[in-house]
Specification:
The complex is a heterodimer. Chain A is built from 14 helices and 18 strands. Chain A is α/β, with parallel strands linked by helices. In chain B, β3 and β4 form a beta hairpin. Chain B is an alpha/beta fold. Chain B has a 5-stranded mixed beta sheet with strand order 1-5-3-4-2. In chain B, strands 6-7 form a two-stranded antiparallel sheet. Classes of the chains: A alpha/beta, B alpha/beta. Chains A and B meet through α12 of A and α10 and α14 of B. Bound molecules: iron/sulfur cluster (SF4).
């Protein structure tokens, strides 16, 4: 997988002195820098196109550590998001950012490193809680690591804390810098997985399935704990056989014993995302399934279809290894019961379950 | 009234010397000339058309295109026109015509698209969005501008449907990106019967998704036997036909949901609920809350119905009625 092309750097006033900004300038010495104002309005075309070749350096004044915006109508995993940036250089047709972002470009929050201490204070003030933290909610955790060097400072910072884990979620095979790091403790490296067909047709510019799994295998050999996310699961004619292919690849390259969890989540979307997707990817077939409005306003596959997909995939995964920490992403108690045969009942229950996985794997 | 900021010269012009093809300032589409002809017949031309001289000494119409067409149809040989100076700026000519039109009538959506398209030759997008979309009574944003600009590319039959508001603007925007045959088919379907714009919107998505899922052209989906039978059914009126077609397409678009609804209905039917009692499943079976509706006029009747209901066997399985369906 090749590094992504960065055409220009947009430097927001106020970010010049941020330590991460300085590092980025050094790593990209030949890329032109344009100075921009923080409140400058973007052109709609740029927002719609997402401008994935411009790196916008931002001094972020908001909260870096946020709770995952779950809904009370479905069971949420209680994840915390470390907001390192927004947008990513890959281009998945289904990406929710297409209707979520109101600013274009790859937005990197360059005062992150300078603000780590205050993030640490929050984590340290709840010593009895387990913070499951991820950076892959609004961007891909590793896609720009070669520019930002996120892993250089995030790994030592989180490795040293006993009441948290940091999950780096990616669709790339960019693990070189990660593996060079000496920190393994409390770090989870996770890959989003799908069928080869979905990856080829919908997850544009991402690593192939095989390359993702090979990269995961290398990380595992290098001592990292792994996680996988089958999300979004997409239903189409023959998809069961193709998800089987994905599991077979996992069997070939991965030792299941040190997997902390595997999540399953079906494709879901807010109504306005559909129009953003149809505009950027006309002729896409990801809406061909039977979608109905969910309790949170998002469209989801008709419940029995979801249940069947989850049940089949989880059964298959359990055949591989029966202690994979399988959980469902944003599903209801009845869907849990019907597809996995048990339910954490509510979000608090799921948090407890995932915390217990952290304890089993990291002690 | 706005003060004239330009000079024009009145001139008796031969109609045959005027280019009456829709020119660069034209913003008229799908109009009925009869009322205008009738008025001209009775009162003459009240406002003279405005013209610009072309290099070949003929004229192009700036304002008054429909009046001139009416005159030609009425057999007039010539009429008094106002001829604008040769160096009259084209943008000003366009605005003159726009002003003239807005003073006298409401533009249809195709005509609004023509105005916006012509403006793009002179102005940038920001100016058009900020200054012209509001006066045309269109939401002022780029997406809507794009939608209107694309209308001119459509076939005339589709444009007529949009102009007459028989085909929604959103649908016109959506079907722009499909093939011509498919587009005309959709236009036929939606204009041959009386569809609400919401029905059109829901149905077009189903049709496109069914076609995509089955890897077939849209035309084939619309031409399917079941739909043709409905369209040719003389015993059904138009709203009934729309309803029947929606039902056919819904069943194809959502086979599992429909199968589930059917199973639930059969289950409820087999229960033989007392009259006036209805069980309503959660919308799309997504939630888990079912509703019970009891119609009664007296407390005694309610009590009787509740007793009857509680003695009914099979009630405890009511939420499982739909779970035997095959999916996927
Ligand atoms: S990798 Fe994630 S953030 Fe990037 S485009 Fe795909 S879904 Fe969006």
């Amino acid at each position: 997988m090749k590094q992504f092309k960065i055409r220009r750097i947009l430097l927001e006033r106020g970010a010049e002195k941020d330590s991460l900004a300085q590092k980025i300038f050094k790593k990209l010495p030949n890329i032109p820098i344009e100075n921009v104002e923080p409140d400058e309005l973007a052109l709609i075309e740029d927002i719609e196109e997402m401008d994935k070749e411009s790196l916008r350096i931002i001094h972020f004044n908001g909260e870096f550590l946020k709770s995952c915006p779950g809904t009370r109508r479905y069971i949420c995993c209680g994840y915390k998001i470390l907001n390192i940036g927004i947008n990513c250089p890959m281009d998945c047709s289904y990406c929710f950012l297409q209707s979520y972002v109101n600013q274009p470009s790859l937005r990197i929050f360059t005062n992150l490193e300078d603000r780590l201490n205050s993030i640490g204070e929050v984590i340290d003030s709840f010593p009895d809680s387990i913070f499951r933290i991820g950076t892959g909610e609004f961007t891909d955790s590793l896609s720009l690591d070669y520019v930002t060097g996120w892993t250089d400072f995030l790994l030592p910072f989180f490795s040293n804390r006993k009441n948290c884990i940091l999950e780096l979620k990616t669709k790339t095979s960019f693990i070189k810098d990660l593996i060079k790091s000496s920190h393994r403790e409390r770090i989870v490296v996770a890959w989003s997985l799908n069928t080869p067909r979905i990856i080829a047709n919908q997850e544009h510019k991402t690593a192939s399935l095989k390359n993702r799994i090979i990269a995961a295998g290398e990380c595992q050999k290098a001592g990292f704990v792994l996680a996988f996310h089958f999300d979004p699961i997409i239903s189409y004619q023959g998809c069961a056989d193709e998800y089987e292919e994905t599991v077979q690849l996992l069997e070939r390259y991965i030792n299941p014993e040190s997997i902390i969890w595997i999540s399953l989540g079906s494709f879901r979307y807010m109504p306005n995302l559909k129009w953003a997707i149809m505009k950027r990817f006309p002729g896409t077939n990801i809406f061909n399934g039977e979608f109905v409005p969910g309790l949170d306003g998002k469209f989801r596959y008709f419940k029995p279809i979801r249940v069947e997909m989850y049940a089949k995939l989880s059964e298959r995964l359990k055949k591989w290894y029966d202690d994979l920490g399988i959980y469902l992403c944003m599903e209801s108690d009845d869907v849990w019961r019907q597809s996995l045969g048990w339910s954490p009942k509510n979000s608090a229950g799921l948090s407890l379950y995932l915390d217990s996985r952290v304890k089993v794997i990291f002690g | 009234m706005e003060k004239k900021a330009f000079k024009s010269t009145p001139l008796q012009v031969e109609i045959s010397d005027i280019d009456l093809s829709p020119g660069p300032f034209c913003m008229s589409f799908n109009f009925d000339l009869e009322p205008l002809k009738d008025s001209i017949d009775r009162f003459g031309v009240l406002n003279p058309p405005y013209l610009l001289k072309k290099s070949d000494n003929n004229f192009i119409v700036v304002a008054g295109y429909r009046r001139l067409l009416a005159l030609r149809e009425l057999g007039w040989q010539d009429t008094v026109c106002q001829v604008l100076p040769d160096n009259f700026p084209p943008l000003k000519a366009l605005l003159l015509n726009l002003n003239d039109n807005l003073l006298h009538r409401k533009l249809n959506n195709i005509e609004k698209g023509m105005v916006l398209k012509r403006l793009t030759s002179f102005l940038n997008t920001e100016e058009i969005v900020a200054n012209f979309m509001p006066i045309l009574d269109i939401p002022a944003n780029r997406q809507t501008l794009e939608l209107f600009l694309g209308l001119e590319e459509l076939e005339d039959t589709v444009k007529v449907s949009v102009a007459m508001e028989r085909l929604s603007l959103r649908i016109a925007g959506l079907i722009r990106s499909i093939g011509k045959d498919d587009r005309l088919k959709i236009n036929d379907l939606f204009t041959s019967l009386k569809w609400s714009f919401n029905q059109q919107w829901e149905t077009i998505q189903w049709i496109i998704e069914i076609a995509s899922r089955e890897g077939r052209p849209i035309k084939e989906i619309v031409d399917e036997r079941q739909i043709i039978e409905v369209l040719n059914n003389n015993r059904m009126n138009k709203p009934q036909k729309v309803k029947a077609i929606v039902k056919i397409l819904k069943a194809r678009r959502f086979p599992s949901l429909l199968e589930t609804e059917k199973l639930f209905k059969i289950g409820i039917f087999n229960l033989s609920l007392p009259s006036g009692i209805k069980i309503i499943p959660p919308p799309f079976f997504e939630g888990i809350d079912y509703k019970l509706e009891i119609v009664f006029t007296k407390g005694k009747e309610l009590k009787e119905k509740l007793t009857e209901l509680s003695n009914l066997s099979g009630l405890e399985k009511i939420t499982d009625f739909w779970k035997g369906a095959e999916h996927g």
